[in-house]
Amino acid sequence: MVTFLMEQGYEINTVTEFGVINEHTSDINEALGLARGEDGRLHPTRQTHVDPRIATHPDLYMCQLGLWSEAGIFFGDPEKLGPEYPQDIIYNAVCTRNYVVHLADQTDPELRDAIVMWHRTLRRLPGEGDHRDIKVLGVRQGYTRCMCLPVDDNSFIVSDESIARPLEAQGASVLRIREGSIKLNGFKHGFIGGTAGSIYVNVDEMIDQRAIVFNGDLTVHPDFAAITEFIRSRNILPVWFEDYALEDIGSILAVE
Hints:
Layout: H1 2-7, E1 14-16, E2 19-21, H2 28-31, E3 34-36, E4 42-44, E5 62-65, E6 72-75, E7 94-95, E8 99-102, H3 109-123, E9 135-138, H4 144-147, E10 148-152, E11 155-158, H5 161-169, E12 173-176, E13 196-202, E14 208-214, H6 224-232, E15 237-239
Parallel strand pairs: 8-9, 11-12, 14-15
Antiparallel strand pairs: 1-2, 3-4, 5-6, 7-8, 10-11, 13-14
């Protein structure tokens, strides 16, 4: 997947609690909070605020506001996070131009303010003056971005009933899928939102196609056919990589 994204012109940034790792990173161990001891082994130099098993998941530290060309990223403060639920989910929201979905009483106030400002800016864009107000849905699942994959502004793939039902009640299009068949180190399984993200892919020199890219082999999922049909029916291209396990990496958050 990394090679594919680079071929599409994206710069790859791996997010950790202690820094961002990319091609410009001079000290990867420092960004991981590690140092080599006298025994020659790498040891933690700082205590993570979150569960170490998911400490490199970007959707714990940031929230993507919107999809594709209008997408922006809100960067949270790792110091606000904690190792236990719901201390680790204050930024783990789903945000499209039509919906904000999260465990509302746990959403960080600074993220709420950023979403309001982003939506006001969006409505001032040419042709957006008559756009309807954003719907804020409070759900009972704090790991919202992990378990809910936004496909477009009004369509979602969801593996949790407590997210699916409120979305459907508001008129959103929802594809319910089964849990499981997704790798997440240290856990029984991962979740669909954590495997994927919205990007543009080059179909020729003149056209960029909207796509949802999955980190690994989507064909292993029992709902593979329904997932790909749901995406394609919205004129979006599903992309996956059959040589690798389908793995939850804390979402793929892309900004043009």
